[in-house]
Design goal:
Blueprint: E1 2-3, E2 23-25, H1 29-40, E3 63-64, E4 80-83
Antiparallel strand pairs: 1-3, 2-4
Length: 91
């Protein structure tokens, strides 16, 4: 999945982290979008009457998704974000 014009300062992303290109192993597009939302979404709270905002990872107008084959990754396996990889600094 790739965030179109990624950048966390974009107001239409609603404060969501937009890392640019994201590679997610998933059985289908919906599962990939769900996993990206879990990994990069920021929970927001809207007061009564404020309406419902759809997370950017679920909006095709903001985030494109396509099937890719990359020899660096196994096709079979659990649904997970493969890139970007976040590592914790040594303790």
């Amino acid at each position: 999945m790739e965030a179109a014009g990624a950048g966390s300062e974009r107001p239409e992303l609603g404060g969501q982290l937009a890392p640019g290109v994201v590679i997610v192993r998933a059985p289908d597009e919906e599962a990939a979008r769900d996993e990206a939302q879990r990994a990069f979404g920021i929970k927001t709270r809207f007061g009564p009457g404020a309406g419902v905002k759809t997370p950017p990872w679920k909006r095709a107008s903001l985030v494109s998704a396509e099937r890719v084959r990359d020899e660096r990754y196994e096709e079979e396996g659990p649904t997970e974000v493969l890139e970007p990889v976040f590592t914790l600094p040594p303790a």
